[in-house]
Amino acid sequence: MKDALNNFQRVLEENKKNGVQDIPRAEIQKCLIPAQGQLRSAKFHTSFISFLLKLINLKVINDIQMIEDVLDYFLKIKDIQKEELYYKLIQSFNTFVHSDFINFGNFSFVEKCLTLVLYMKNSKIPIIHGPAATSLQRLIELLSDSTQLIIAGQGFDEMNVVLDLDNQQEQNQQQMTQPIDHSKEFQNLHSMLSDLIKLSDNVRPHWYPILVPLDREFGLISINNFLTSMGKFFIQYKTISELLTDNLILILKKIITTPLLRSQVVIETFKCLKILVENEQSEVVWTIVISQIKQNEHSINKNLAFQTLIYFVQNQVFLNKLVQSLNSEKNIILEIITTLSNLAKEVQEPSEAEWKRLGELAHPTINLVDNSEVYPSDNGLVCRMLSEFQSRFANSLCVYADQQKIQLGNLIKLQSNEKFNQLIDLTWKHNLRAIKYLLLKELDEQTLQNLLIAFQQYINIVGSIQMKSAQNAFIKTICEFCKPMQGEEFAKKHIQINKMVLNIANCLGNLLECSSWMCIFKTFEECENHYLRNRLAKNSSQEEQIKTFDITILFQSLDQLFSQSPTYGNEHLITVMDAINQITIECLEQQQTMDQKKSNVQFGEQKKYFSLSKLVELIKFNVFRLDVFWELIIAHFISVISSRNTNLVLNAADTLSQIIFYGFEYLTKFYKKNQQQNNQQFIKDKWSNKDSIYQQTLFQPWVDMCTLRLNDIKEIILANILKMIQNNGHEISNKGWDSILILLLNISSEQTTLFVKQGLGCTEQIINQFLSNLDGKQIFQLFDIIDNFKSNSNEQNINFQICNMLWHLGDYITKNNSNQEQGNLLTNEQLEMNLKEIFQKLSVIALDPIPEIRHSAIHIFSNLLIHLNSQNQYLEWKKILEEIFLELMHKITQLFQDKNQAKELDVSQWEETVKSVYQAFVKLVKKYFLVIEESSPNKDQDIEAIIRQSIPDFIIVFQQSKALLSMEATKQLRELFLYQPVICLQNFEEILNQISEIFNFPSSDIKYLKTVILHITPDVLELLNDIIKLSKDILIEQVIDTYYKILEFPLIAHMKIDLIQNKIFFEDNLAPKQILVTLSQTLSKQSPKLIPRIIHNVKELIKDPPNDKYKHMLLKRHFSQFNTMMDNNIQLFFQFSELYEYILITMRNNDQYIYYSELLNEDKSIYMMMAENYLSRAKTYLQTNKEDSLKVLQALQQILPDRFLLDKQQGQNKILQQENQSLELYQIELITEIYRGNPQLSETSEFQQFIQKLHEMSANSYIAINKLCLLSQNQFVIPYLLDASQKILEKGIGDEVHNQKIILDLLNNLQSISIPDNSFLLFQQLSGDFIAYPETSLLQSEFGHLFYLMPQLVQIITHKSEEIRIKVKEILEQISKIILKQQQ
Question: HEAT repeat ranges (predicted)?
């Protein structure tokens, strides 16, 4: 072996030097022969094979004979068991499986390759056994490529097809040269197939290894691979076809009939049959398959026969054969279909175990091509196969139709002799029969779905070619299985079938005939009940939840049943509607046979008719062509509504109303969108947009339905009218409103209360929102409608609704009439007549028993009349106010009076009504005043007449002892007065008298008193204040008397009932300031009688001292306001001076006026307040009126505190002492100032009295002694001054503690003053004695008073107070200087 290799190496080197690439075969054999002897050395062979592999890859070994020698070498060493060797062996072998070597020209080499593959397949070593199948397949592919050239060279003329060779260039070269003789290769091809067929029959070919067991599976697999790779051209070659027909088919039939074969062998056998279907003898194949299917027992043969048949049915040959056999006596295809139909009938229900296996299947069928795992055949699998067959067969029919240019899905008309028509007519009954039997079985979901898909395709086919009987049969069959049998539950199967029927109706609805649609509608009508019953899950299992979800989807999908109907032609759409209508008629006929009591169901309990609801849905999808079917639909509905079945009638009425809605909405949008275009879609006159005639057409069915005497229908109409107005009122035009108003007028004329609520609701919607869309005639109709509904109503609240409508009507009429641009104007006569009618209706409603309605009517009356007023309709306005409203106010007042006297329970409610009507009256009159300024020449007479007519009613109100009502009346009177004060003053005398009566005698009713004091009083005072502001000498005394009555009223009431304990806090309301302030501004213009009237009332007020703190507070506040009045007009001071004197003297002489000030810890008493005020005003007054000084002095001196009062003050508290001292100071200063400013007054007796008063007060008042000093220039004053000074100084010597300040002030005053010279020539003492001093006496000097008081000054020098001693010393020094000066 070593020598052989060395020799081989030497040859290679020589060839390389010589440029020779090929190696002689002898050299290779020299290496191979020794190598074959080394059978036990696996390592050697592994290395040697690697060496050979390199030579092959380097193309050193490229001759077929060399390759064959190497392959022989491989066959000899194949049994050496070494894994690495095996790997190298297979790797090298795969390099031989190449197109350069594998062809029928190298047949012996091919046989050896097959032999090696058989060894590999039979080996138990995985590394060898595994690649066997791949190697075999690759061999077959290469042989198949080689066979193409053989067929082209030997059998072209015998073939009925044109071959398309892959290599066009090679083909062109062959045409240019002589044809190549492939007879030997063809012979090898034939031999190869023959050998494989023999092997399939367990006959060993010559190349088959003896030691390898016969493997027919290898033969079948090889044939399968070979025939599959070759394709249909190989089978059509005559010589080969004969070989297959005469040998292979017989062997396959033999194999199939052989029992107990391995399943893989059977599978490969049926794969061969599947390939042979396109052979001329395909009928033999079908016969074999049918024979297997007809077996009673379950087997894999039967299962695979089904699989093969399923493959057949989707093959073009199958249908071609079927078409070719249409007129022949024996039709093998029809026999297949019939057989399967019978088989479907005989299939038994699968057992539970079979169901479990079916559930585990990953795919619905066994795929022979992919060689997937095979399950044992059973009943469930048979059903699945039969279902798959029907699905594939139906699909094949659709493919054939497409080939024949037949467009399924559209209605087409075929001649009866056309092949496709004959084909369907021949097979549909058998297929339907098979499907029906299968549907009776319990099928798995996928099997059932395949069957249902086939069903849909059949219906598409028979519907397209208008085979009515077939279509009806299919639809009827599938509909039968949509619902469960009696006693069964609505299961998953039924849901699945329902989905398919929905899909058929939706997608193929354009193909279905009337009877088919009827069947579908009836089915879904029943199934809908199942949907409703099963919408809720019975448990929480996943299966039940999925079922519930599917039912929900079904229920929702049912609403989309006609989603494709817009694509239907008009005639077909009418057909569908006829079907629905026929269902309704059948329901009507069935109901007529039922008991009248059961069928006559009330509207609220009526049954929902499926057909009617579906008709609505159909029209909803096709409303764009409403004119096409409108007449049909209306005629149908009117006939149904005219029946005696109330239940159906009501459903039909409701359904028709929905159709009207859909039509209205669509047409409105359509005309809006196309308003600028001349669209001729609706060419009929009654669908024209002119004057909205189409709306009249749409609403006409409602008008026709109203003629039927059935109240429930009218209720439906009313409900839909209301809905139409609410949703589309803005789109309704003239003709539409005509129809609606006619409907409302007809329904309102019925003598029943049933329609009142809905009818008024419709009317109210029209009035509130759409009056602008109505013309005058239509508006007038509204009044009749309102009257009709009101006359039929027994509800109390209806007037409230009518009030609102009357308001809108009146408001619109007046506004519309004032707008000259409006087209629908009313004449003046129409305006007056209708306005009067509106207000008369409101005046009647204003007397309604329900208070809210009364108030609403009054409010609307007033506001509407005011609005009319603003439209300058004065004459109508005045007439309505005088003739209607004042009469209404009088009636309400009288009713209230009667109820109050009778003490009826609702008197408080009528009290509120009286308030409301009086408020409205004043509001109207105020507006009236504005209008008549320009509208009436006799305005004063008109206003006075209206006010005069209202006075008696106001008086009645005040007479009813209703505090709140009186308060409201007072407010309204004040409002009235503010707008026409003069006229009111001339007519308010009785009113004021009646108001005054309120404050005469306090009631014992706590609530009444509280209202009077806290609420009525302020309003009355405001009214009185307004009257005073007018400055007219009318009612003024009456006003003042009432004012003081009001002031005293709470005090009088408090004497009877403790107001504070009852939480009636009246202090802040005792004396409002505004009246007296106003009075001060106008008093000078008032009657002279007024001031005495005020004085009289004040005197009456204070004649009795306060007996409680409240009167004290009243007096103090009132006088505070009285003082303010004086501030605003100081000229009134002199007129009220006497009153001031009376007040001050009265208070000074009664300690009660001081007692409550101390009790209440007030800063000032009333007396002090009045005195200070009086003094201040006196001073101010005298600045401009000096001529009245004496009169003022007389008054001032009269009210000066006397000795008794001053002594009494010593016992008062310090605050009052300070107040008195302050008053004393201010009063004395004012009088002193007056006397000093008017020296001529010092000769009067009043002056003497004043000096005497000062002398009296000097003992306790430093102010008095001070003023005496200031007035000491008067000779009359000196005796009083000296006497008072002597007493003070003497008292100071005895009581050094308490008189220190008085003494010091006295000494300062004495030191600062000077008296007239010669004052002591004839000096008269207070005792009456006269003393005369010489002229030379020091007493006659200007400081004579100091010399006169020298004895007292000398005594006081020893006073304990240092200040006093110093002051005395200064005086004495001053006296000494005077004496020394005189001595000089």
Answer: 1349-1384
For the chain, what's the residue count? 1384
Burial class (CB in 10 A: 0-12, 13-18, 19+), 778: middle
DSSP string, 482-495: TSPPTT----HHHH
* DSSP label of 1108: S
pLDDT computed for residue 1123 by the predictor: 75
CA torsion 211-217-222-225 (nearest 10°) is -160
Task: Provide the β-strand partners of residue 1323.
Answer: 1331
Paired tokens of 468:
């009515």
Query: What does the block give as tokens for 793?
Result: 């109503």
Residues 759, 725 contacting (CB under 8 angstroms): no
Question: What's the token pair of residue 817?
Answer: 């009439």
Encode burial over 722-759: b for 16+ CB neighbours within 10 A, e otherwise: bebbeeebebbbebbbbbbbbbbbbbbebeeeebbbbb
Alpha carbon distance 1351, 1110 (integer Å): 57
Closest Cα partner for 695 from 674, 726, 665? 665
Looking at residue 178, the DSSP 8-state letter turns out to be P
Which contiguous run of DSSP H or E holds residue 229?
A: helix 216-230
Tokens 């290779």 sit on residue = 28
What would you report as the CA-atom Rg of the chain, rounded to the nearest whole angstrom? 67
Q: Quote the tokens at residue 738.
A: 């005509």
Distances (CA, A) of 702 to 342, 649, 652, 784: 58, 13, 12, 20
- 377 burial (CB, 10 Å; 0-12 / 13-18 / 19+) is buried
In angstroms, the CA 886 to CA 942 distance is 14
Within a 13 Å sphere around the CA of 205, how many CA atoms are in the beta-carbon half?
22
On whether the CB atoms of residues 1067 and 1113 are closer than 8 A, the answer is: yes
Q: Residue 59 — left, alpha, or beta (φ > 0 → left; ψ -120 to 50 → alpha)? A: left
* Least confident interval from 168-177, 605-614, 1331-1340, 1346-1355: 168-177
In this prediction, residue 1203 carries a pLDDT of 52
pTM over 0.85: no
Structural contact between residues 692 and 736, judged by C-beta atoms closer than 8 angstroms: yes
Query: Residue 180 pLDDT more than 60?
Result: no
Q: What is the per-residue DSSP string for 231-274?
A: -HHHHHSHHHHHHIIIIIHHHHHHHHHSTT--HHHHHHHHHHHH
Q: Which burial class, exposed, middle or buried, applies to 1181 when counting CB atoms under 10 A from its CB (0-12, 13-18, 19+)? A: buried
Packed helices 492-507 and 445-464: angle between N→C axes, nearest 10 degrees: 30
Cα–Cα distance measured from residue 498 to residue 561, given in angstroms and rounded to the nearest whole number: 12
| Best CA proximity match to 399, nearest among 456, 446, 457, 451 | 457
Torsion of CA 1100, 1103, 1104, 1105, to 10 degrees: 120
Distances (CA, A) of 413 to 424, 462, 905: 14, 11, 88
DSSP 3-state assignment of 582? helix
Give the per-residue pLDDT at 805. 84
